[in-house]
Structure formats: structure tokens, C-alpha cells
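Deliverable D2.4 — example input (C-alpha cells):
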């Protein structure tokens, strides 16, 4: 069974940084893409960035472009989300997703596998 496990969430002041990790197990996903989503209370789940595992190509939502960076460590089947210049508006539960079925990468319905999420809270 495919497992995705996020870690690294926490509380930080505005302007600070955090690095989230997504560890993928029991899954050969070299041709897949892994995408980070976030869900804030009262808001829709938002796709914020994605990486194609084979090529390393990344794309970001406008809301995080220039502040967030996705990278990967293939040897450990781990993808990272480096977050900088955090704002209170970044407060949300953050999820990683894999098993891309096609279509637009920012659509939550396009993914088969999800992690349990890790909370990020940014205070002003």
C-alpha cells in the first residue's frame, strides 16, 4: 500500500521559514508527479506546487511563487517544500499527493494517494 507521510509542520512568526517533508514508501513513482496542497479553514483545498519526479520540473501557484520551493531527494523517496517569508495567510494544513491521473496538476481530484497532512500556523 502506498504511503505518504508529511512532517515538519509547526508554528512560526510571520517572515519565518519552515521546511516540510513528504516521504513516499512502497511506490515506484519515478514517472509520477508529487504535489503539495493546503487547506485552510473555510477555504478550498489549494494546489500550491508540484514536481515531476523524473525531470525535476516544478510549477507553483501564484500565491506562493518566489517564496516556496519544491525539491526532491530521490535516494530517500522524499520531496521537500521549503517555505520562506511566511505570512499569516499561509496558515493551513499541508498535504502531499501522488498517483497523478492526468489533467491539471492543481486539481485535488487528479491524485490517488494522499498523506495525512501537517499543520502550519503563522502568527503575525
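Example output (designed residues):
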Amino acid at each position: 500500500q502506498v504511503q505518504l507521510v508529511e512532517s515538519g509542520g509547526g508554528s512560526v512568526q510571520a517572515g519565518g521559514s519552515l521546511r516540510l517533508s513528504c516521504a513516499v514508501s512502497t511506490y515506484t513513482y519515478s514517472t509520477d508527479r508529487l504535489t503539495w496542497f493546503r487547506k485552510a479553514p473555510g477555504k478550498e483545498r489549494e494546489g500550491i506546487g508540484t514536481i515531476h519526479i523524473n525531470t525535476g520540473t516544478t510549477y507553483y501557484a501564484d500565491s506562493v511563487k518566489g517564496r516556496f520551493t519544491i525539491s526532491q531527494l530521490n535516494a530517500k523517496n522524499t520531496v521537500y517544500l521549503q517555505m520562506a517569508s511566511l505570512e499569516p495567510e499561509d496558515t493551513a494544513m499541508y498535504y502531499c499527493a501522488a498517483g497523478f491521473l492526468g489533467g491539471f496538476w492543481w486539481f485535488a481530484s487528479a491524485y490517488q494517494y494522499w498523506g495525512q497532512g501537517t499543520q502550519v500556523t503563522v502568527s503575525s
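The CA atoms of residues 38 and 94 lie 4 Å apart.
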